[in-house]
Amino acid sequence: MLVAIICNDKPGALQTRLDNRAAHLAHLKGSGLARQAGPFLDGAGEMCGSLIILEVADMAQAEDWAANDPYAKAGLFESVTIQRWNRVIG
Question: Which residue among 34, 52, 59, 68 has the highest number of C-beta atoms inside a 10 angstrom radius?
Answer without folding.
Answer: 52
